[in-house]
Amino acid sequence: MKDKNYLKSLIVGIFILIVGLTLIILGLVFDVNARNNYVKVDNISYSPAWYIYLLEIGGAILFLASLGNIYYYFSNKFNLKKMNVKQMAVIGVFSALSVILYYFGKFNLPFFPSWLDIQFSDVPALLVSFMYGPISGAISIFVRFFCKLPGTSTVGVGEFADLLIGVSMVVTSGIIYKKHRTFKGALMAMGFGMLLGTAVGVIANWLILIPAYINIAGFPQVALTGAMDTIISGGNHVVTDANFMSYYLFVAVLPFNLFRYVLVYLISILLYKRLSTLIEHFAGDFNKDEINDDDIIENNLDEL
Fold this sequence. Notes:
Blueprint: H1 2-37, H2 50-77, H3 85-104, E1 106-107, E2 118-119, H4 122-132, H5 134-148, H6 157-179, H7 183-215, H8 221-233, H9 244-283, H10 294-303
Antiparallel strand pairs: 1-2
């Protein structure tokens, strides 16, 4: 009887997931069509219609609701550790912080293209991943993605790339740290997470981000090339349309992501022990059987 209930939960979750994704895709399609038909008058910026917000926000809510049903099935099927209400509340709070930082906790550097932002919204997701495991960190990244999607200025392209990069980095770090909860394990988790996140960032920009900016969002290639050429040579036409991708990927994207993740991981490791000790008092035992190993991290940090 229980197996039937678990299966029913999975079926309902998959159905809600499909409906949610369908609404999101419809919202993006309508948004693209509206942008293409939009005539800019007196420099008035394009603003998505109410039904586009309704489709994307509704789809995001359904998608997140479906994750609960699917998680319920797999947690019972494979005897995974279940989260209590307080732990889910903590994940919700950190997810909200991730969204806030996505909007307000970012800035540009003059030696990188203006569309590459140094932002710290991955920090809350990393902290959750260290505390409750990689699935919790991935949930935070998905929440950030869906909350940002209705207000996208890139027809969802930039948000989708951030989703891929964020999930790969957070999940990788969470998996490694879950198995090796020591200071050395934390460094290993940060190293592999940074390398994989950077690699996914380069690939995403190469195969998804730049082609979608040009072919879907309508960004002119000459503008991208010109911006990159200004940074590299001060406008002396060293960067052309033909070699733009090579310069962009290896002179901008690669060092940018490495620098960004060094900052993200440094902040995360400095905050983790202090916040995890505080949260344990309010949210109960997360990984309590292994919590003493975290003292090694604190001792190493105190020596720095």
